[in-house]
Design a protein that fits this description.
The complex is a heterodimer of chains A (223) and B (194). Chain A has a domain at 127-220: Immunoglobulin-like. With 223 residues, chain A is of the alpha+beta class. Chain A has four helices and eight strands. In chain A, a hairpin with a 5-residue loop joins strand 2 and strand 3. In chain B, 75% of the residues lie in helices and 0% in strands. Chain B folds into two domains: 1-102, RNA polymerase sigma factor, region 2, helix turn helix motif (Rna Polymerase Sigma Factor, Chain: A), CATH 1.10.1740.10; 104-194, Orthogonal Bundle (Arc Repressor Mutant, subunit A), CATH 1.10.10. In chain B, 49% of the residues are buried. The chains are: A alpha+beta (223), B mainly alpha (194).
């Protein structure tokens, strides 16, 4: 069967929007939507019904231990502080092939499975990251989320002799700084997240200082 | 540890989108915060579709693994992080149900689900307006249309499966699914205009 007329699609629009159309009809329908903005708009409005239904499903408490099992499965289980490594599990964008259909709503198609690449220089539209460096050694990581509001998050291990609180300053291209806040250390280790209070997309780096102003670590976001 | 509550509070106040970005870093504290925020939602969807705690837990875990792998392709223009996770959990749950379901959805489970999506108990009086609008709209449908809509929209049953389960012709099942969906959409849009 070649092509699909609007009238035919109208018969299938609800099943398409609810995600229950058999594969062949679905492929045909999606091909039609690609070239028909009116049908695309109508199906997009109908997907809100399916999304709305799912939003009515009651929340439920998972079995005891679920949280730690998930964290372990993601390879993010906390490791002893003194041996802590700043493990990065950023999936290369190219390896991710989740497909969201163009007519609205969430439709996750077959994805290409594969272990995430361990890359330390990943940046994308929503997240910037940089190493926190002290005396030439990486002592932590800082992440700046550039979406609504702008957030920074960091974890740092300055050695058991280090004392907090640590003050975080965000550095701009002209050298000016914006204080993001301060956080405590426990046995030299600390992690902290807070609203950036400035446009994180324009921040070029960060500086962590001790209460007396001594610079403990610095970070530079790559362009 | 005196500082911990402050840290927890900070992570608790992070936006869903920021927390999703954090998930991609693999940092243990951010992963825990992300899972903690959404696990009841994700597990609830899986349990509703599958009706089996063990299977639902497997699906919920796969949902977080998939979200972690694909955090970079999340597009806020298409909807909320919660909606995205719900869609992933729902798709995985339906795939699992399809692989295992030898029989149609248990009639008692279906009746219970109809109750869930149409009742408006007092404790939900403060729930968000969008959800209540959908609930009211589904409650206004003739029962056979509400059943067909729940079978398709929640249990992922095709029109053929609805027809077999309800002992009606395929055309009738298709009409019920479509009419129910369009009516809910019309009711929602008429309420939105008020």
């Amino acid at each position: 069967m070649s092509g699909m007329e609007c009238e035919r699609l109208r018969e299938l629009d609800a099943e398409l929007a609810l995600g229950v159309l058999p594969a062949r009809e679905r492929a045909e329908a999606v091909a039609h939507l690609d070239r028909c903005p009116e049908c695309r708009e109508r199906v997009g409005r109908l997907t809100a019904v399916g999304d709305g239904l799912l939003a009515l499903l009651p929340r439920a408490e998972p079995p005891v231990g679920f949280e730690s099992r998930v964290v372990t499965a993601l390879g993010a289980a906390p490791v002893p502080k003194r041996r802590r490594r700043y493990r990065l599990r950023l999936a290369a964008a190219g390896a991710a092939a989740a497909v969201a259909c163009g007519f609205g709503g969430w439709t996750v198609a077959t994805v290409v499975e594969g272990a995430p690449a361990a890359t330390s220089q990943h940046t994308d539209g929503g997240l910037r990251e940089a190493a926190l460096v002290s005396a030439g050694h990486e002592v932590g990581r800082i992440y700046a989320h550039t979406g609504d509001g702008g957030w920074v998050y960091m974890s740092v291990d300055l050695g058991s002799h280090a004392r907090g609180p640590v003050r975080c300053l965000l550095v701009h291209a002209d050298g000016s700084t914006t204080p993001a806040g301060s956080f405590p250390l426990h046995d030299g280790y600390g992690y902290w997240g807070a609203p950036a209070g400035t446009d994180t997309a324009a921040v070029t780096g960060a500086r962590l200082t001790a209460p007396d102003g001594t610079v403990l670590a610095t970070a530079h976001f790559s362009e | 540890m005196p500082g911990m509550w402050r840290i927890g509070l900070s992570l608790g106040r992070m936006s869903d989108e920021a927390l999703l970005s954090g998930l991609a870093t693999g940092d243990p504290e951010l992963v825990v915060a992300f899972v903690r925020r959404f696990q009841r939602n994700v597990f609830g969807v899986a349990l509703a579709v599958l009706g089996d705690t063990q299977l639902a837990e497997d699906v919920a875990q796969q949902t977080f693994e998939r979200a972690w792998r694909h955090a970079q392709v999340y597009d806020p223009r298409r909807g909320s992080v919660r909606g995205w996770l719900t869609a992933i959990a729902h798709n995985l749950a339906i795939d699992t149900a399809r692989a295992r379901r030898a029989r149609p959805v248990d009639p008692e489970d279906l009746d219970a689900m109809l109750g869930v999506v149409t009742e408006t108990p007092e404790r939900r009086a403060l729930a968000d307006d969008d959800a209540e609008r959908v609930r009211r709209a589904v409650a206004q449908l003739p029962e056979e249309q509400a059943r067909a809509l729940v079978m398709a929209g929640i249990y992922g049953m095709t029109a053929r499966e609805v027809a077999d389960s309800e002992h009606v012709p395929l055309g009738t099942a298709k009409t019920r699914i479509r009419t129910g969906t369009l009516k809910v959409r019309t009711l929602l849009e008429s309420e939105e205009k008020r």
